[in-house]
Amino acid sequence: MLRSRTITDWDPEDIVAWEARNKYIARRNLLWSVVAEHVGFSVWTMWSVMVLFMPEDVYGFSAGDKFLLGATATLVGGCLRVPYTLATAKFGGRNWTVFSAFVLLVPTVGTMWLLAHPGLPLWPYLLCAAVGGFGGGNFASSMTNINAFYPQRLKGWALGLNAGGGNIGVPVLQLVGLLVIATAGNRSPYWVCAVYLVLLAVAAFGAALFMDNLELHQIDTTAMRSILSIRDTWVIALLYIGTFGSFIGFSFAFGQVLQINFVAGGQSPADAALHAAQIAFIGPLLGSIARVYGGKLADRVGGGRVTTVVFGGMILAGALLVAVSTYHDHTSGPVGTATMIGFVVGFVALFVLSGIGNGSVYKMIPSIFAARSRSLIGSEADKEQWSRAMSGALIGFAGAVGALGGVGINLALRQSYLSSGSATAAFWIFLVFYGLAMTLTWFRYVRTPAPRRTTPSMLDSVLR
């Protein structure tokens, strides 16, 4: 199954070869990359649905404990994105996709077993959530691999589609959870796990049969070290904390926030789980779709402009959540319909805007290094190889740091609920961060262009 299937002469910038056959090869690899990343995202965010199957009177876990499960999975997924970025160059995109899909069978089976045995302490659940975090690493390896398959003029579309198709694994998982809760009740989580055991097998075998390795795909520790000395690396990482960190953090937290408020409104845990599941998938679904259009929009008008507008919108959505939550804090009685509508509108707006921002920020990465490569001394082929290596390294690094933003969101919500029984303090933190990100984007990439100076030694360090 893992026989050699390596392309030795890949050049996506060769227009004649691209139109003749290479675009079909790239599309085939993109398709199965999306499938594998999609399922990986679902396993990574499995606990965003599992917590709806865990009433406190049965499992003994508080809302704070459940937020900690989401934070643990997000933390591991974020940390693994750097080594996963390097893995495709070391082992081949096809080979690594197959391996990473099979690995996720372990946490899926583990989740099924744990939820069938309530009464266990928290630590085995945290361990299982951590192993499920391996699914978060799939994003970095998939994006880096597809980045090497496509020419510069199509990277925004390809990376947006690849990432959006992966991100949509979150709402699909939540729809599966909704189907199970609606038909079998909130005590049958094993059906969700069973579905993903099958899908993981399909993804692994499909990647083995239809994907390719690229011999010239090079991302090494030299490139990873080199990007750390470039200011744009840290700016992009911060912006991605605001966009992808919001998407993945709210993907874990949205359903639980809804469930908490439904219970506070007087619903039973079973009804609250059902009603939360009926709404929770909407935000991640729209955010995943928006990511594709964010990349395309950035191709047309520029990633910096799109990202600035995105953070402006996120400030408004965050302000709505602060206003609604503050109003509820000062109102006695159960959560009202108007309050719930305000929460849903604010969160869904954040999902859509963060999705657009995910696409626009990632489009900025290859554009930044393509511009920097023009000032290098060397052949066009060397410049292109340098740009690809640096872009691939930053894609992995930004993905890792950005995912850690999701950890911050879950920990902020956890502490806010533990301290005051409300999410208002956490919403204020998010609002301030979005303001900082918008200001930084405008100053760095809109008001004045990003610096283009790059030393020839940087080219030598990556290519030698």
TrEMBL record:
It is a multi-pass membrane protein. The chain crosses the membrane at residues 30-55, 67-84, 96-116, 122-140, 161-182, 188-211, 232-254, 274-294, 306-328, 340-362, 393-413, 425-443. One of its GO terms (cellular component) is membrane. It is found in: Membrane. Keywords: Membrane, Transmembrane, Transmembrane helix. Pfam families: MFS_1. Its main location: membrane. InterPro entries: MFS, MFS_trans_sf, NO3_transporter. GO terms for molecular function: nitrate transmembrane transporter activity. Belongs to the major facilitator superfamily. Nitrate/nitrite porter (TC 2.A.1.8) family. PANTHER family: HIGH-AFFINITY NITRATE TRANSPORTER 2.3. This is Nitrite extrusion protein. It comes from Mycolicibacterium fortuitum subsp. acetamidolyticum.
